[in-house]
């Protein structure tokens, strides 16, 4: 890849064990297939808010659920791309998630429903947009008191159905009642408890109560992707758990370049709406300030960006 010296880029660092890439620093080392060239219409601060969230969303949808992005600005079919690779080229801990957990005939496609728990997160923001652009129906579970108005007003983020996450049991009941038998794909961005709740939501009421409809429906699998954690309870009744094979992005050049080149196209054409930048801190000391503000709940539903090229005097 050729990049002019003055070109604005973002480096998406998913290899957290390599401190040359993952640490907060002014200069970083990057594989060329993990570098995204920003168009003039996207500022560095806006671009910095995107990175890992886009990769996580693309791999969750494209590999774990098998959703093709070919009808979105000529995007990649990541599942086909990955399954053409030699299995032994991949790290052993992601081989099963890439080759075994999804039957190609059960992949997501237009008309399917996807539920995203933690619908206000940046990854949910991106995943929701990509899913809708690919023809899926989107159900978001989020805190309506904090984020409901923002999600309702923004046409790019507005889901087909929004469920309040405040009462977890009530949310599960609403999802089962609204989409019983139709919900095959789920993405959790929060943690183990919400992932377990999402898993319960994906069961029909008959299955949840231990009864079987007559005649039995055609067997299908349901798929739950846990971004932060997977449920402690075993997967039953055709439900399959997935971990996001994030290593694909930085270990497999074919996958990394497919995602970064597609992201460049999406940004250049303005196909996706970027996450809101709610705070910009300055200097390396701003890293902890930004994290503290996030812990206090001052930054929610958007991103905090730290400009390390600016030295802030304290």
What assembly state would you assign to the polypeptide chains in this entry? single chain
**Percentage of residues in strands:** 15-25%
Number of strands: 10
Q: For the CA atoms, what is the radius of gyration?
A: 20 Å
Contiguous low-pLDDT stretches (5 residues minimum) are none
**Text of the CATH class of the domain at 91-246:** Alpha Beta
Outline the biggest β-sheet. Answer: 6 strands, parallel
Number of distinct helices: 13
Gross geometry: globular
- Going by CATH, the architecture of the domain at 91-246 would be 3-Layer(aba) Sandwich
Indicate the CATH topology of the domain at 91-246.
Rossmann fold
Structural class by SSE content? alpha/beta
Overall residue-averaged pLDDT value = 87
Order of helices and strands: EHEHHHHEHEHEHEHHEEHHEHE
* CATH homologous group name of the domain at 91-246: NAD(P)-binding Rossmann-like Domain
Protein name: Putative zinc-binding dehydrogenase
InterPro entries: Lipid_raft_assoc_Zn_ADH, NAD(P)-bd_dom_sf
Organism: Rosellinia necatrix (White root-rot fungus)
Description:
It is a single chain. With 314 residues, the protein is of the alpha/beta class. Among the domains are: 156 residues, Rossmann fold (3-Layer(aba) Sandwich), CATH 3.40.50.720; 36 residues, no CATH class. Helices cover 38% and strands 15% of the residues. The protein has a six-stranded parallel β-sheet, with helices on both faces. A two-stranded antiparallel sheet has the order 1-2. The protein has a two-stranded parallel ribbon with strand order 9-10. β9, α13 and β10 form a beta-alpha-beta unit. α3 crosses α6. The longest helix is centred in the last third of the chain and has 17 residues. It is globular. The protein starts with 8 loop residues before the first strand and ends in a 7-residue tail after the last strand. This is Putative zinc-binding dehydrogenase. InterPro entries: Lipid_raft_assoc_Zn_ADH (IPR052585), NAD(P)-bd_dom_sf (IPR036291).
């Amino acid at each position: 890849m050729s990049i002019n010296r003055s070109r604005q880029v973002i480096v998406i660092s998913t290899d957290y064990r390599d401190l040359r890439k993952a640490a907060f620093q002014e200069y970083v080392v990057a594989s060329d297939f993990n570098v995204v060239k920003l168009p003039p219409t996207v500022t560095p601060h806006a671009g910095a808010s995107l990175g890992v969230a886009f990769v996580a969303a693309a791999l969750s949808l494209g590999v774990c659920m098998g959703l093709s992005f070919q009808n979105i600005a000529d995007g990649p079919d990541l599942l086909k791309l990955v399954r053409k690779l030699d299995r032994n080229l991949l790290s052993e801990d992601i081989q099963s998630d890439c080759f075994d957990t999804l039957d190609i005939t059960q992949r997501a496609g237009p008309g399917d429903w996807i539920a995203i728990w933690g619908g206000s997160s940046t990854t949910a923001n991106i995943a929701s947009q990509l899913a809708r652009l690919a023809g899926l129906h989107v159900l978001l579970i989020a805190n309506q008191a904090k984020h409901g108005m923002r999600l309702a007003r923004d046409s790019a983020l507005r889901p087909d159905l929004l469920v309040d996450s405040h009462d977890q049991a009530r949310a599960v009941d609403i999802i089962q009642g609204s989409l019983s038998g139709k919900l095959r794909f789920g993405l959790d961005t929060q943690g183990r408890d919400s992932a377990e709740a999402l898993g319960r939501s994906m069961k029909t009421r008959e299955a949840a109560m231990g009864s079987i409809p007559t005649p039995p429906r055609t067997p299908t699998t349901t798929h739950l992707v846990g971004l932060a954690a997977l449920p402690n309870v075993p997967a039953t009744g055709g439900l399959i758990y997935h971990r996001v094979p994030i290593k694909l992005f930085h270990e497999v050049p074919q996958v990394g370049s497919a995602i970064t080149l597609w992201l460049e196209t999406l940004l250049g054409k303005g196909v996706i709406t970027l996450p809101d930048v709610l705070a910009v801190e300055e200097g390396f000391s701003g890293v902890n300030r930004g994290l503290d503000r996030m812990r206090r709940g001052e930054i929610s539903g958007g991103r905090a960006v730290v400009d390390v090229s600016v030295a802030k005097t304290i």
